[in-house]
Sequence to fold (367 residues):
Amino acid sequence: MTNVSTRIAPTPSGWLHPGNGISFLVTWALARAMGAGLWLRIDDLDADRMRPEYVEDIFRTLDWLGIDFDHGPSGPDDFFKRFSQHLRLDLYQKNLEKLRESGLLYACNCSRKEIRDLSPDGRYPGTCRDKGLGWEGDGVAWRVRVAPAVALWELWRTEEAARRRPCGAMADGGGCPPSPLWGYGGRGMLPDFALGLWRTEEAGDPMPDRPIEQSNQSNQSNQSNQLIESIEQLTRLMGDFVVRQKNGMPAYQIASLTDDLLWGINFIVRGADLLESTAAQLYLAHCLGEQAFFQTAFLHHPLVKDEQGEKLSKSKGAGALKTWRENGLTPAKLVQQAAGWLGLDGAGIETANDLLKVIKGQNPDNQ
Ligand SMILES: [Zn+2]
Fold:
């Protein structure tokens, strides 16, 4: 397995929490097990929430976890000097212009409240699609057109999705693009969400629209068209989403995609809360003609909940890893949980390297 590139991509908008730590460990250990290149990318576009101490916290946390990386900033100073996303605004804008020139964008001046009043589920109803508003007006966002909603996406939000077949089934022609990760996924190592954004159960699936069923019966050559089709269906459910914010800054979706393309990222580990973003980014890649991005393998991992069952959030500072460090705790608990996410027995393991050994032990290629 060669030429796999992945990244750890934290946002310096709060103290990192256990969910971030486990996600980094999974990404690092899979990267090292595959001999993949690993980038550190710090997503600092949101200048209002960025704080230098959060950038510092990212480096300290990686150190504490025992995680190294191959590409990216060597420390906070190097980050601000050479790797800040604010240094790549022209690249993001170039992709925005490309989308605009292809007629896919329109300007929107709706407020959050106006959208909420019209659409209780928060999905943008397309109010400004045909208004022809000016691009640079005050309080104007740019949105990308997507077709009317279908019901597929809703199903991906449900617990149902968590019971889908392990991605290993895909290696037998389950409808996903050729992936350098098949060697791993094929042995059922990755949890259910792995690589499986567009995959459905074969039997008894309540899915009203079943592009994957078709692709199960199809040959490799038309798989990619069907893949695009199913991503479009997912994306339609998001409504026309924002690609440039009202303050003129590129939205996360376009910045993340642009950076991933720039660095040749083809393996992305992220939380299941970003499934929608995966759909959005694949859709944008499709619109931009960036077919290479469709070779990307995605691993969507479960989210860590707090004791009340709420999603951990950086803004709440829930159990910040900074506090773990200050209290002299080791990352052993996180390492064990990372093993659990990968379906491995993590009993007794304590370090990132232990996790890597467990993964390698599970891969017959390395035995
Ligand atoms: Zn609008």
Summary: Residues 108, 110, 127-128 surround zinc ion (CB under 6 Å). The two ends are 15 Å apart (CA to CA).
